[in-house]
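TASK: fixed-backbone design
INPUT:
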C-alpha cells in the first residue's frame, strides 16, 4: 500500500535527491533537476516548486543554512537536507522500488476501446505505432550506448528500464499484428461483422449484460466485510471484460497516440555535475 507522506509530491523526492549532494538554493536545485532529466523520470509541475520547498522546510526535511546575494539579483536562501530528509529519501525509494502500483498508460486506454475501430484500421494503426516504436528503440539504444561511455550504469538504470519496456511492447505488437493479419485472432469474424453490418452480435450483448450484472451483484454485498475495491475485483474475476462494450463508440475519439523517442539520461543525483550538465534536458 502506498504510504501517506507529509509532502507527497514527487517533486519533493527529486529535491531530496539533489540536496543529498550539497546545499543549494532553489534556483540551483531546479537547474540541476532539469540537467539530470528528473522531469522525465517523475511527473511533476514546476509551478508548485516553491510551494514544495516551503512545505519541506515546514516538515523539517530540509533547512535553511544561509542567504546569499549575487550582484543585483534577489537574495536567495540556501537549503540543506536534514537527517529526517535523508530518512524520507531512503524510505520513499524503498517504497517505489519494491511495491508495484497501478499505472494508466494512454496506450492501454486506447486498447480498451480497440473494438470501436474496424479490425483492418486497427491493424494499420498498430503497425504505424510499431514502426514509430522501433525507430524510437533504435535511437534510445544508440543514446544509451553513448552515455554509458561517460556515465556509470547505475545512473542510467531507469533508461535501461524504459528501453526494456519498449522492447517488450514492440514484441507484443508484432505478435498481435501477426494474428490480425493471418485471421487467427479469436473473435475476429465477429468484430469485423459488427463494423460491416452495424449490428451488435447477440453473444457480445449477452456478455456485456452478464458482466454488468455480475459487478452490480458484487457491489451489493455487505460492504462492512468486503471493501468496495475487493467487490470490484470480484466482478472482474467472475466475468471477462468485453471490448464490445465500447464497440458502438465514435471512432473519431479513438486514441492513436504513438510513442516518441526520448534520449536516455543519467539520474546523476550522485554523479558529477559536469557530466550531468552535458546532458541537460531543460
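OUTPUT:
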Amino acid at each position: 500500500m502506498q504510504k501517506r507522506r507529509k509532502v507527497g509530491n514527487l517533486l519533493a523526492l527529486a529535491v531530496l535527491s539533489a540536496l543529498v549532494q550539497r546545499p543549494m538554493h532553489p534556483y540551483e536545485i531546479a537547474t540541476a533537476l532539469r540537467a539530470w532529466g528528473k522531469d522525465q523520470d517523475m511527473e511533476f509541475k514546476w509551478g508548485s516548486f516553491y510551494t514544495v520547498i516551503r512545505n519541506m522546510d515546514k516538515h523539517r526535511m530540509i533547512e535553511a543554512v544561509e542567504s546569499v546575494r549575487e550582484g543585483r539579483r534577489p537574495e536567495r536562501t540556501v537549503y540543506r537536507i536534514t537527517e529526517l530528509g535523508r530518512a524520507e529519501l531512503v524510505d520513499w525509494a524503498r517504497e517505489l522500488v519494491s511495491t508495484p502500483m497501478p499505472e494508466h498508460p494512454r496506450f492501454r486506454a486506447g486498447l480498451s476501446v480497440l473494438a470501436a475501430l474496424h479490425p483492418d484500421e486497427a491493424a494499420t494503426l498498430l503497425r504505424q505505432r510499431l514502426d514509430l516504436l522501433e525507430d524510437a528503440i533504435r535511437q534510445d539504444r544508440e543514446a544509451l550506448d553513448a552515455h554509458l561511455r561517460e556515465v556509470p550504469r547505475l545512473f542510467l538504470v531507469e533508461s535501461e528500464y524504459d528501453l526494456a519496456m519498449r522492447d517488450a511492447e514492440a514484441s507484443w505488437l508484432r505478435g498481435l499484428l501477426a494474428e490480425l493479419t493471418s485471421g487467427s485472432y479469436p473473435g475476429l469474424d465477429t468484430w469485423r461483422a459488427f463494423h460491416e453490418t452495424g449490428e451488435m452480435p447477440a453473444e457480445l450483448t449477452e456478455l456485456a449484460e452478464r458482466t454488468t450484472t455480475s459487478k452490480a451483484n458484487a457491489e451489493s454485498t455487505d460492504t462492512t466485510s468486503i471493501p468496495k475495491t475487493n467487490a470490484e475485483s470480484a466482478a472482474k474475476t467472475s466475468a471477462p471484460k468485453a471490448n464490445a462494450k465500447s464497440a458502438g463508440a465514435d471512432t473519431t475519439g479513438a486514441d492513436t497516440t504513438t510513442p516518441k523517442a526520448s534520449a536516455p539520461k543519467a539520474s546523476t543525483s550522485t554523479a558529477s555535475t559536469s557530466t550531468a550538465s552535458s546532458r541537460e534536458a531543460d
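COMMENT: The two ends are 34 Å apart (CA to CA).
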